[in-house]
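Hey team,

Filing this mostly as a record. A colleague (T.K.) asked me to run one chain through the structure pipeline before their review meeting, and I want the input and output archived in the tracker in case anyone asks later how it was produced. No errors, nothing strange. Just documentation.

Input sequence:
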Amino acid sequence: MKLFKQVPVLAMGALILVGCSQENEVKLENYVDQASYGVGLNIGESLARDAVELNVDAIAAGISDALSGAEKRIDQETLQAAFETIREEQERKQAALNDAAAQVGADFLAENGKKEGVTTLESGLQYEVITAAAEAGAKPAATDTVSVHYHGTLTDGSVFDSSVERGTPAEFPVNRVIAGWTEALQLMSVGDKWKLYIPADLAYGAQSPSPKIPANSALVFEVELLDVKQEG
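Output structure:
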């Protein structure tokens, strides 16, 4: 969702809403009141996803003026300049966050690669064998579908996704996941459990898939290969 049609705002962070003096004055006694509140909720939830500092009272004034046909309180040139300033500020903040996350990941992997039992591949992917299969099992090809259990964290240990916690294994084609997974899975045998340390460029890079994963983050996964469903 874009905050304004004129200016896309793409940064993540905390949404700061200044104002909201009408909070205790609103009555929700009939369907018109309730539907109106629902419209406000939808607008607020959409704006919250863009994570920009906004003044709630000013938003309400803009909506009120638009619905009533009142004269605009700010000319278009001033509005456009304000949108542009917000965009520039958000881009600066996001660039700083991205750079910091990239440095944290690089530092982590540099130290992690020195640990006993950690193997670093030419791509930069690192792995550690937690449990080796009792017997050499099937290794998946890129076109195969696998069943795995996994537990994903940031380098600080913060959990962002876990099939283990959900209690249900995940199934997916090997070549339809992040590059670090695609590379590692083809080296594993059914029954293996590895810990993967994935550089940002083999994970999601600058495009974060979730607020739980900052852009340019190195990721850590415990992956257990349960089964391979070979193509054909």
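Quick notes for T.K.: The helical segments are 31-50, 56-68, 76-112, 163-166, 179-185. The longest strand covers residues 219-229.
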